Amino acid sequence: MPMNDNLKAIKQLLSERLCEKRYRHSLNVADEARRLAEIFGEDPEKAYFAGLVHDICKDEPKEEQLQRIRNSAIIWDDKALGQPSLWHAMAGSIFIREELNVQDEDIINAVRYHTTARAGMSRLEKIVYLADLTSADREYSDVETVRALARASLEKAMLYGLQYIISDLVAHKSPIVDDTVEAYNEYVA
């Protein structure tokens, strides 16, 4: 299914695959991704689509997410294997390629790395990552700071967002996947 040919069908699919709260979140991320794309010179419709489908596998049972990943060519580190909350992003990137016939690697990577980030992210990847952190439904303590930064500078917002996420992971004694560490190191280098 081509990216923007039938957004109504994509929204219908999402409403069937996601709980109401997650579906609304996906719409909010899509709206924010479009806004950020307009600010930073990215294709707004491409950003909207990537934001819309970023959580397409979020409510899929964990066993199905894991099986989808294991059946793919995705290489992942051991820390990711131990964090089921990250699997939906990898599974989603596979789903949109195989089930929706999305062949745009930028969109596929935006979905895949929207939870972990990575070094060398494209502008679209950064936009979707930040749109997910700053969508209208987000209410964490630093969200207004991240929103303001995201509208001013993708790089400053990425650094702040990664610092926030890493400090939260450390506070919860959670492992930090290599992609996140490498993304952070890229911004502080």
From TrEMBL:
GO terms for molecular function: bis(5'-nucleosyl)-tetraphosphatase (symmetrical) activity; metal ion binding; nucleotide binding. It catalyses: P(1),P(4)-bis(5'-adenosyl) tetraphosphate + H2O = 2 ADP + 2 H(+). It holds the Pfam family HD. It is an enzyme of class 3 (hydrolase). The gene is yqeK. SMART domains: HDc. InterPro entries: Diverse_Catalytic_Enzymes, HD/PDEase_dom, HD_domain, YqeK. This is bis(5'-nucleosyl)-tetraphosphatase (symmetrical). Signal peptide: none annotated. Keywords: Hydrolase, Iron, Metal-binding, Nucleotide-binding. Its EC number is 3.6.1.41. Residues 22-137 form the HD domain.
